[in-house]
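ingest -> validate -> predict -> emit
validate: passed (alphabet ok, no gaps, 777 aa)
predict: started
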Amino acid sequence: MKAGSRFLNAVSAVAVSASMVVTGGTFTTLVSATAAQAAVVQRVEVRGADRVSADTVRANITIVPGQSFSNADIDDSVRRLFATGYFSDVRMNISGGTLVVTVSENQLINQVVFNGNRKIKDDKLRPLVRSQSLGPYSETAIEADKQTIRDAYSAIGRGDAEVTTQVVPVGDGRVNLAFVINEGDRTKITKINFVGNQAYSNSRLQAVITTKESGLLSFITRKDVYNEDKLRADEEALRQFYFNNGYADFDIVSSEAVLDESTNEYTVTITVSEGERYKFGDINVESTVEGVDPEELNGLLESRAGNTYSARDVQESMSEISKRVTAKGYPFARVTPRGNRDFATNTIAVDYLVDQGERAYVERIEIRGNSRTRDYVIRREFDISEGDAFNQEVINRAKRRLEALGFFSAVNITTAPGSEGDRVVIIVDVQDQSTGTFGIGVGYETGDDGGFKVEASIEEKNFLGRGQYIRVAAGVGANSRSYNLSFTEPYFLGYRLAAGFDLFRNEDESEDYYSVDTQGFSLRLTAPITENLSTTVAYNFTELDYDSDNLDEIASPFDRAVRQGPWVRSTISHSITYDSLDDRITPREGFQATATQEFAGVGGDSDYYKITGKARYYHLLLQDADVIGSLSAGAGHLIPTKDNVQVFDQLLLTSNDLRGFESGGIGPRATATGDALGGTTYFTASAEVTFPLPFISRDSGFRGAVFADAGTLYGKDVKTVAADKVRGTDMEWRASVGASVLWASPFGPLRFDYAIPVKKESYDETQRFKFGISSQF
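emit:
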C-alpha cells in the first residue's frame, strides 16, 4: 500500500474502498478509509461480472467472510483480479456487512490471426503469444506479444521486423485480434574478422565458433544470424580452445558487431591476446582432509609434466579426484588447482589442493531458456537435487553432460545465494537448437545386376523435447528394399539406463539363384559404467525366408534353406563400449572402441557363439591446418555350438568395413552360383587423413579425405553338397585406396567415397563409388 494507508485493527474498524485506474498500460491503486461497524464482512457480493462467474471473482480475492482483513488484503485482492486479465476496472466497498466487488470486464478475444508472416508460420507463432482465442483482451499482454514476435524474427536474422495490431469488434463484447507483421529483410553476417591472432589462422578460429559468415546454405543452417548471447558463447568457445592448447594467458580484448544499415549486413570483429604457449611443469596433489591420501590420488591425474598445458586435463583431473574423495564419504570436499607460471621455461606447475569446503546445500535448481526441451530432461543430468550437499565438480560434470547431449547451442550454469547462508540456488541457462536431421545415402553396385541403391532417413535426437531418440529409414535399390525403425528412451524408469528397440525388414534379390526376406526386432538396454564406458545387453530376433525359382538347376548350400525355411535366429548379445571422442561430427582427438559377444541358441534354428570388436583412434596432426589422422582395426570370430552353422549366420564384411568392395563382396563363395557364403573369421584395418578442402570456406562444412583399407574374411563351417565347390576359405588379404569428400550438411553428415581395389581375388565383387551418411564407427 502507499504511504498514508491505514490498517484495520481489532479496536477501530474501517471500511476500505479501492479501485484501479489503468492508464497507458500501468495502474494506480486508490485507497480511502471510512468508519464502519465491523472489521469483518458476512458476505461478498459481485457486480458487473457477466462472462466471468462470480465464483471466479471470489476465488481471486483474499478477503473471507467472517475473518478480519486489512488494507493490504484489499490491495492484494485488487491486484490479483487485475492479474487475471479479465477486468479493465475493479472497485471494492463495504455496505453494512457486505463486501461489494464491482468489476468492469475486458472484452474477450474471439479469434487471433497473423497476417504477413511467411518465414514463421502460424503454428510456430501462436504458442508464443499470451493473447489467445476466448481469452481476455489486454493491451499490456498485446504489447508483450508484439515484442515476443519481434524477438522470434530477430532469432532468424530479421531484426528489423515490425509488428502492429488490428482490432475488429464482432459484438457481445468480443473482438477479433490480428497481428500484422512486416517481416523486413534478412540480416546477414558478411565478414568475421579476428585481430591479434598469430598462432592460428582466421579460418581455424572460425571453425571453433558457432557464428558463421553468410553463405549459400545459410538460409537453412541459420548460423549467420547475429545474436549477442551467441557471440558471448563464441567468446567462451575461443577461450576453451586456447586454454586447451597451452595458451593459459589468452584473453578476449573486445568483440563487436557493426550493422551496415544500407546493406543490412553485420561485420563481426573479435580482438584477442594470445600470450605465450605453456607446458605442464611439476604436478602434485596435497590434502588437508584427514583420511585422504595424496599419493593414492596421483594415479587419477590426466595432467602430465612435459605435456602441452590443457585446461581440459586440469578439469578432468579435478573431476576424478572429486569423485574418489566423495566416494570416501567427504561430500563437501573441494578440489582447487593452483598454477605457478615459470615465465623463463614457459611451464605451469599445478598443485591440486583437497580441503574441506564450506557446508552448503542446494536450495533449488532453476532452468531457464529451454523453449523446447523439457525441464526434467535437463534436471536428470545432475547427480544432485534439492537438499543435497553442494559440490562444484558435480555441477561441472552436469554441464559437460548437457553439452554432450547435442540439444543446446549454449549451456551456462551459475549459482546464486539462497534464502539462508548455507543455501545455494543453481541457475541453468540453455539455448535450444535443432536436433532433427534428414539423411540420404546412394550407392552403386557393379556387375550384370548392378544398379543404384538409395536410402533416406529421418532422425530426431530430442523427440518432442523429451530427450528421446527416434530414426525412421527406408531404402530401395535395383534388387533390394529395406525398412527400419529405431527408438531409444535414455532414462528408462527414471534411471540412467537407455532402453530401446529396433524393427527392420529387408528384401534382397541381388543373388542370381535366390532371394531372401529378413525381418525382426531387437530389444536393448545400455547402462553407464563410467563417463566414457558403457555396457549394453540385447535380445535379437530375426526371421529369414529364402525363395528360388531355380532349385532344379543348382545344387548349393541354399538348397536346404529354401526347402526348410523360414529360418529363425534368436540371440542374446552383450557389448562394452568406450568413447572419449571430443566431437560427435568431426572428432579430432579421442578413442572409440566396442567389443560384442553374441550367443545364438535361445530357441530358433541357429546355434553359435560370435565375438566381434572394432577400435578407432583420432589425433590432430596439424593444428592450424586442421588435418586429422585416424587409425582403426576390427576383428571377428564365429564358433559353432553344434555340428554346423547356417549359411546366413556366418560373418560378412560390409562396404563400410572395406571400401571398394560390395557388402558381402569378399570371402568364401560358392563356385556354381557365385553366392557369398560368409566366413568364420575376419580382420580389418584402415588409415585415414581428413583435411579442409582448399579454396572452399571452412564454414561450409566440406572436408576431403584420403584413406587406405585392408581386410580379410575366411573360414567355413557351412556344410555344402558334394557338387558345389567353395573358394575363398583361406586367409587372403584385400586392400584398397581412395579419396572422399565429407560434408557436415544441414541434413546430417554425408560423405562420398571413391575407392580403388589394389589387391583382390578374381571372384570378389567390387563397388568403387559410395555415397551416404557419414559414419565414424
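Residues 660 and 755 are 5 Å apart (CA to CA).
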